[in-house]
Amino acid sequence: MWEKIKDFASTFFVTGDPLIYGADVSIVLTMAAIVFVLTKYKKWGWLWREWLTTVDHKKIGIMYLIASLLMLFRGGVDALLMRLQLAFPNVEFLHSEHYNAIFTTHGTIMILFMAMPMMFALFNIVVPLQIGARDVAYPFLNAVSFWMFLFGAMLFNLSFVIGGSPDSGWLAYPPLSELSHSPGVGQNFYIWGIQISGIGSLATGINFLVTILKMRAPGMKLMKMPLFTWSVLSSCITIIFAFPILTVTLALLYIDRFLGAHFFTMDGGGNPMMYVNLIWMWGHPEVYIVVLPAFGIFSEIVATFAKKTIFGYKSMVFAMISISVLSFFTWVHHFFTMGAGADVNAFFAITTMAIAIPTGAKVFNWLFTMYRGRVSFEQPMLWTIAFIPCFLVGGATGVMLAVAPADYQYHNSYFLIAHFHQVLIGGVVFGYLAGIYYWWPKMFGFKLDERLGKWGFWLWNIGFYVCFMPQYALGFMGMTRRLYTYGWDMGWAPLNLISTVGAFLMGAGFVFQVWQILYSIKHGERDTTGDPWNGRTLEWSIPSPAPLYNFAVVPEVKGADDWWLTKQERANGTAKAEKAQLEPIHMPKNSGIPFVMSACWFVAGFGFVFGWVWMAVVGMIGVALTMWARSFEYDTDYYIPVDEVRRTEASFGRGISCNKS
């Protein structure tokens, strides 16, 4: 019996690597510390009532943000481990299988478990406030979306210490992801972690599409919406059409692995290129899903800190919608070398170049907005300024890759690695960091420290160029991606060492940002006005942090940049005095069902990973029971009385005369 237990444990847990043992210890210590603190300070009930069962979009946004920062740390550590392995030739820091697992988890985590939740954090925190809504269209579904994401991410990350991480690349191309090349459970962790979190992502896209279309404040027509809200709308449209492709693709791969089908195995009559087409039919729109909201963030920040209306509002809207549509017509540029023929390659080369037009047009809009503006260089604006040259280089190298004959030389080289990170870090990460700095006071009621923030900013930016500029040259020198070691005779060592130094500089920048947050919790400048940046849109018209109900009185929108217009009218003495009509505010009640349902999905996913049908059945029965319980849950909302609204507003120094009739 004891021997059976030992045999099971040796296959169930990942062993034999000091890095894995270190991860085991850190996980146990972290969990013990969390349990100790919650028990010592008697916070279990508070945690359940205020966070685990919340349907408040602002709290859900904060939880998305915390999760994304943790995933940024995890994915960043993976990146540093890879750069240590490649810093010098013939390094034996990581063996080949471990290196493959690390670059697989790095790519998957950064795209799906860092960029997506960071984007959803800003969706939740900002969109209802910008459109004058008191909540999202489906608060319960919003909570389901978050917990599905989190439990999917936990399932994927668990593979590091249980069962073994996937090692077939972050897009899991067959045959590497088939049983013949990945016989362990690592690839199953990949499939089910992404499947479960993907359900949450699709639900978020639907939720915010309906929220934007149906819950805007009176007077806010589509062409009066803030540009960030437009960018979210564009992104959600793309999510709704792209994520079902990912769901079906991974389902087919799992059927190959679990039931012995041959959708993607050539020796069984399947075609691995079908998988590659399907995964990139999702994969390239996914790039635009995460970058479109960043464009909206930059538009808000440039207008605010240049103190001007955004230049070319209508062209910006048209550009974002165009990108959303064109993103579905570019996927083949990822495999020009597959031999599809000149006609196919020419078509996708043209569409890839075409999508650069609306993308580049926005840069001119931002520059023209700044032209002759009174630009102030606060932290959000610094990240915006840094984005522009970085993204221009990324766009220019993207056009180079779009030239099909030239791509035969660039394909699978480090030139591609540099371009991809140039766009995803320079566009997405810089954009979301700018947004976090910009809306941080609205989330938490205080600004982040400027001095520490600038240290983080410069280390990130200097480190970025030191890390990725040498990789363009390495690509030209013939260094291909997925190499875990190389010889001294290749001549790649100096540039790889420089690139590794740059990666650690970016890591130091992240450390400064964590320090900045911890320092600012106690010492950060408090936002007592609700409008610390002299903003232009509705979220700056309410206190910071926003009250539970967001708006005591739903605003009447007069035009784009409505809050700026209101402030101008007040300054000019032309604002009309209107008596506020306070009424009881309808709000959704908290619910524990989303958390329990997602936990059941986790159990089912774990069963599917190991092929334990009994566990998968138990988990799915739990999912069905929670859905059944929800269908009979009638007491799902309540009203905040007028007196409570008035007291809350008074606590913010905003006394409102009211008429209860």
UniProtKB/TrEMBL annotation:
Which GO BP terms, alphabetically? aerobic respiration; electron transport coupled proton transport; respiratory electron transport chain
Where does the record say this protein resides?
Cell membrane
- UniProt membrane topology term: Multi-pass membrane protein
Pathway listed for it is: Energy metabolism; oxidative phosphorylation
Query: Example GO molecular function term?
Result: cytochrome-c oxidase activity
Pfam families on file: COX1
Identify the keywords attached in UniProt to this record, alphabetized. Cell membrane, Copper, Electron transport, Heme, Hydrogen ion transport, Ion transport, Iron, Membrane, Metal-binding, Respiratory chain, Transmembrane, Transmembrane helix, Transport
Provide the catalytic activity annotation. Answer: 2 a quinol + O2 = 2 a quinone + 2 H2O
In the record, the note on similarity to other proteins reads: Belongs to the heme-copper respiratory oxidase family.
User: What is this protein called in UniProt?
Assistant: Quinol oxidase polypeptide I
From the broadest rank down, the organism's phylogenetic lineage runs: Bacteria, Bacillati, Bacillota, Bacilli, Bacillales
